[in-house]
Write a structure and sequence with these properties.
about 500 residues, mainly beta, Leucine-rich repeat, LRR (right-handed beta-alpha superhelix), 3 domains, 3 helices, 22 strands
Length: about 500
Amino acid sequence: MTAPTLFGLSHDCLRRILGFLNPPSALELCVAYGRPEMMDWFYEDGGVYTYDGTDHFLPTRHIKHLRYTDVSPNVDELAAYTGLHTLDLSDSKITNVDALVACTSLHLLDLGRSRVTNVDALAACTSLHTLVLTGTGVTNVDALASSTSLHILDLSRSRVTNVDALAACTSLHTLFLCSTYMTNVDALAACTSLHTLYLNKTEVTNVDTLAASTSFHTLHLHSTMVTNVDVLAACTSLHSLDLSGTEVTNVDALAACTSLHTLILHMTNVTNVDALAACTSLHILILHMTKVTNVDALAACTSLHTLSLSTRVTNVDALVACTSLHTLDLYGTAVTNVDALVACTSLHTLNLHSTMVTNVDALAACTSLHSLDLSGTEVTNVDALVACTSLRKLNLHSTRVTNVDALAASTSLRKLNLYWTRVANVDALAACTRLHKLNLQSTGVTNVDALAASTSLRTLDLRSTKVTNVDALAACTSLRTLYLHSTKVTNVDTLAACTSLLILR
């Protein structure tokens, strides 16, 4: 048997604490300082010392990473931590960081959601690499002109209105200005290393300055005042672009962005996406609530994985070339035919809610289908779904479906909505033993005996049905919610086995 040691520490660790070997780590200092109960936490937290106000600071020697929790720190003590590399003051009540003028080795500083309003002291922190000021009252960042090594800066939800000083931060590659009062970002023309910029919910009107950032990778302009993105033709490395909620009408310039992976045009005035034929690497495209009517150009986007279309689209035949398609949202479109999807054998999620589709036989080829929404369509037959054995979620609400026998093959089905359909028989569901949620409201169902096999059932809605007997549900011991409004069920004594059941009449 191994001989016990103090606090369960190895002899080597103890010798370090006693100073016989190398200087102790922050973890060992913590133990030596009389807080052995924190040892496991340290291992899990990567050796960052957290000061929670219950002790004095650890000795400044060797402390490189420091974090506060739920305390009002005495910032004057920070001046002694000249070797500090990482400091986390997020969500603290700190208001003043003048003491950091002594922390010239500081590499990462998080002041997010603190009460700090002035960061002039950071002019001395010339090694600063990452700075988080999100949710603070900071209005001026001129001091950062000396932080020429700054790589990542988060000013989102601060009160900053001017970032001219950042022209000196030529190493800056990631900048967050979301929800600020920014109107102009021309100074960023000097930040030639900039590759990620978030301007969401600002009043910026012009991004022409980005023409100098040829290595630009990610640009978010959601809900800005930008109307023209022609300058992006120079950003040939652009990977992700969010223009949602802007007044942009033309995206022809994107033909030059052949590396484009993600494009969000939701709630724009874009009418034409032919230029995207050149974006053969496009993976995600959101066109919901645009004025686009034709998507034939997408036939060239064979890597397309996720697609959401405008309500004005009527034809999706071009998608026959998009064999990698995983998620397709056609909600509210005027599409009438989805036969092209026979080629999309990897399709996982399909939303046809409130479309004009009447036939879904092509879906027999989509054997990987997990989620299908046909609600509000004129579909009458779902026999093709017998091939979709991986189906987990199916919504047939307000369709003309009368028969669901094909679902006997969908043994993985978890959620099924038959509300306001003409289905009268659900015996096939006896095979759906993994069913969690079933809505039979306002159907013609009179008998639910088959559900005795659905032992995983948690929610069942029988409102406005002609069901009179629910004895079979006694086997559904996981049942938590049962809706019986407007039914003729009078006896629920047999459901005593469902100990967590809430019956709503």
